[in-house]
Amino acid sequence: MSHWLHWIDLLGVAVFAISGTLMAYRKHMDGFGVIVLASVTAIGGGTLRDMILDLPVFWVQQPDFLYAILVAAIITILWLRITHKFPYQTLLIADAIGIAFFNIMGLQKALDQDTGPFIAIVMGTMTGVFGGLIRDVICREIPLVLKGELYATTCIVGGLLYVSAMSLGVPDLPSMVLGMAGTLLLRLGAIRWHWQLPVFQGSH
């Protein structure tokens, strides 16, 4: 199981690195800027999670995460140089896949530390959204997490699905798939149909 979790984690890092590289391309950054933005997007949330949980930072212990970032960034750069197009929809989809992976992986890591379901869901949400938040702040964009469409809420729903499935005795892997699928589908639906939570309306 741990072997599969590691590969899922690597895939999540690679997908978030792609979204960071796409944003760097949009902002006309140089090669160093691309790597920096891809890296903070990919490992920012997990780094914060590990620091809060007082754990060794995951990418320091396992440098293959950094290799995954480099490979994902280079492949994305080559693809962009061939197409010369910025696919904003691809950025949103890559970001959605990234938060789905990182949400459940962060939640599971918190559960492994006996934090309890509520704190684990908070840690999962933080892992999923914080890297993208840093990316958008660096690029002077309104962070996706602060825009109207459902974003962090999708992590909470996915986390609740995962925790609920585990409490009903569903095995680990199907529970993880359920949580990831719930997060991803809800986020993709929000992108497609602009689902939002009710917001305060200013007085007129």
Write the layout of secondary structure elements.
Layout: H1 2-26, H2 31-52, H3 58-61, H4 64-83, H5 88-112, H6 117-138, H7 152-167, H8 172-193
Helix pairs in contact: 1-2, 1-4, 1-5, 1-6, 2-4, 2-5, 2-6, 5-6, 5-7, 5-8, 6-7, 7-8
Description:
The protein is mainly α. 76% of the residues lie in helices and 0% in strands. The chain contains eight helices and no strands. Helix 1 (2-26) packs antiparallel against helix 5, helix 2 runs antiparallel to helix 4 and helix 5 (88-112) runs antiparallel to helix 8. The chain is globular.
In total, how many beta strands? 0
Largest sheet: none
Strand content: under 5%
Question: Span from first to last CA?
Answer: 56 Å
Using the CA coordinates, give the radius of gyration.
Answer: 17 Å
Number of helices: 8
How much is the average pLDDT?
A: 91
Helix content: over 70%
Order of helices and strands: HHHHHHHH
- Per the principal axes of the C-alpha atoms, what is the gross shape? globular
Characteristics:
204 residues, mainly alpha, globular, transmembrane, transmembrane helix, Trimeric intracellular cation channel family protein, cell membrane
Gist?
InterPro entries: Gly_transporter. The protein is an all-alpha fold and 204 residues long.
